[in-house]
């Protein structure tokens, strides 16, 4: 009854704002990484935003316009990101915040958005606990627990001994913890774990430790981009594949936009993820075709571009429902009930209890399709998967 009452109130508040029908410009603050050594990740978000705006930027109520106020956080720098967000809220008076490659940056901004009552939609930042810090935060990307925990369960049925190598920041720790929990619950043994600095460019020493431990399987996470290619290269150069050590991990390790640069060493690598550019879903085929037309036939969209595209779709759906920028509380109630059956990744929805994404998780294998490397979806690990971490750690 309480939930239905809140939904009714939110609808009434939206309807009230719709009745005003005044011309207005809705400002959306977009914070991403456009410079520095990790700009490739920010480029994926940027492409997703640009593609959405080209295809849908005019799909607004009469008299309503959208203005994107774009800012560069230059990488994982929480203090810088918080300062930028404060400027967007106070000086630019944005009605929405979005973007964010990096979890530390999003975690710094979330309490600020809550204090200012500005809805904050994460396009990528995956840290599991962020929604607990702000009632005005929602996520359309993923958490590492959504992929790593079921992958650990799956791996325990195939392998006895594992070694983990993850990036040394919150999402890496969460991927490691989730995989180990799932793997051990299935009876698997973890021989060792290594955390790699975010600044690392050479992975040979870390791969050598894995080779020396002689596990059956290596589980890895890194924040996609060039690090994923460097780690894959070290895996091949040190002969871990020839030693019979299976390479598995989250979708970040074989991200679609980097896959061709990895070469044939990536063949057979298994990942759990919510998106693949190779999927034959009609909505995805249309998305990939539009992406290639806009940015080049040789480029493939990565999951970050889809996260950006879906975040913009959610924001536009809110604007259309309220005929402009509605009451922030009503906006969040709308977001809690949000569903999109036609995302390129498949059906998605927002969990009303956590404001986190619910989506399918796919088991994928790198294969050659038409002479090109592709993440081929071979199994559905779970339908409309909620974040497992929050089920194990409910908010008190």
Helix content estimate: 40-55%
Q: CATH homologous superfamily of the largest domain - what is it?
A: Response regulator
Structural class: alpha/beta
Q: CATH first level of the largest domain: which class?
A: Alpha Beta
Note the beta-strand portion. 15-25%
Q: In angstroms, what separates the terminal alpha carbons? A: 22 Å
Low-confidence stretches: 1-13, 15-21
CATH fold-level assignment of the largest domain: Rossmann fold
Using only CA atoms, what is the Rg?
21 Å
SSE order, one letter for each helix or strand: HEHEHEHEHEHEHEHEHEHEHHHEEEEH
Number of domains: 2
Please count the helical segments.
14
Average pLDDT score? 93
Shape: globular
If classified by CATH, what would the architecture of the largest domain be? 3-Layer(aba) Sandwich
Main pleated-sheet profile: 9 strands, mixed
Q: What's the number of extended β-strand segments?
A: 14
Task: Please give a quick description of this structure.
The protein has 14 helices and 14 strands.
Features:
alpha/beta, 9-stranded mixed β-sheet, 396 residues, Rossmann fold
Question: Can you describe what's shown?
Answer:
This protein has helices spanning 2-20, 39-56, 78-90, 103-116, 130-133, 144-156, 170-185, 204-213, 225-237, 259-262, 282-295, 303-322, 328-336, 388-392, and strands at 24-32, 64-72, 96-99, 120-122, 137-139, 161-167, 189-196, 217-221, 246-250, 270-273, 339-343, 346-350, 357-369, 372-385. It has 396 residues and is α/β, with parallel strands linked by helices. The protein has 2 domains: 2-142 and 283-355, Rossmann fold (3-Layer(aba) Sandwich); 144-273 and 361-392, Response regulator (Rossmann fold, 3-Layer(aba) Sandwich), CATH 3.40.50. Strands 6, 7, 8, 9, 10, 11, 12, 13 and 14 form a 9-stranded mixed β-sheet that branches. A 5-stranded parallel β-sheet has the order 2-1-3-4-5, sandwiched between helices. Helix 5 (130-133) links the parallel strand 4 (120-122) and strand 5 (137-139). Helix 6 (144-156) runs parallel beside helix 7 (170-185). The longest helix has 20 residues, at 303-322. The two termini are 22 Å apart. Residues 1-13 and 15-21 have low confidence and may be disordered.
């Amino acid at each position: 009854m309480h939930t239905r009452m809140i939904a009714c109130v939110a609808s009434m508040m939206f309807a009230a704002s719709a009745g005003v029908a005044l011309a207005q410009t809705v400002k959306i603050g977009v914070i991403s990484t456009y410079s520095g050594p990790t700009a490739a990740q920010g480029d994926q978000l940027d492409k997703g935003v640009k593609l959405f705006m080209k295809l849908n930027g005019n799909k607004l109520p009469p008299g309503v316009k959208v203005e994107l106020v774009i800012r560069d956080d230059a990488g994982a720098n929480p203090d810088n990101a918080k300062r930028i967000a404060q400027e967007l809220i106070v000086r630019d008076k944005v009605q929405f915040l979005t973007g964010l490659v990096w979890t530390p940056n999003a975690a710094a901004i979330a309490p600020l958005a809550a204090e200012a009552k500005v809805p904050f939609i994460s396009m990528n930042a995956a840290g599991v606990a962020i929604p607990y810090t702000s009632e005005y935060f929602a996520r359309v990307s993923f958490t590492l627990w959504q992929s790593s925990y079921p992958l650990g369960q799956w791996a325990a049925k195939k392998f006895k001994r594992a070694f983990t190598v993850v990036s040394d920041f919150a999402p890496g720790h969460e991927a490691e913890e989730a995989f180990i929990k799932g793997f051990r619950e299935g009876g698997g043994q973890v021989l060792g774990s290594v955390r790699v600095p975010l600044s690392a460019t050479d992975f040979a020493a870390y791969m050598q430790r894995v080779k020396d431990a002689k596990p059956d399987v290596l589980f890895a996470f890194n924040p996609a981009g060039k690090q994923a290619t460097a780690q894959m290269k070290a895996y091949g150069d040190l002969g871990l594949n020839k030693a019979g050590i299976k390479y598995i991990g989250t979708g970040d390790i074989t991200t679609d936009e980097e896959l061709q640069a990895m070469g044939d060493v990536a063949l057979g690598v298994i990942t759990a993820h919510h998106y693949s550019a190779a999927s034959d879903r009609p909505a995805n085929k249309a998305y990939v075709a539009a992406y290639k037309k806009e940015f080049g036939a040789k480029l493939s969209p990565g999951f970050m571009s889809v996260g950006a595209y879906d975040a913009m779709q959610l924001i536009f759906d809110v604007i259309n429902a309220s005929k402009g920028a509605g009451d922030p509380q009503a906006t969040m109630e709308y977001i809690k009930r949000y569903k999109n059956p036609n995302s390129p990744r498949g059906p998605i929805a927002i969990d009303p209890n956590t404001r986190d994404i619910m989506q399918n998780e796919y088991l994928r294998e790198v294969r050659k399709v038409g002479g090109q490397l592709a993440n081929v979806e071979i199994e559905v690990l779970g339908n409309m998967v909620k974040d497992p971490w929050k089920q194990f750690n409910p908010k008190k």
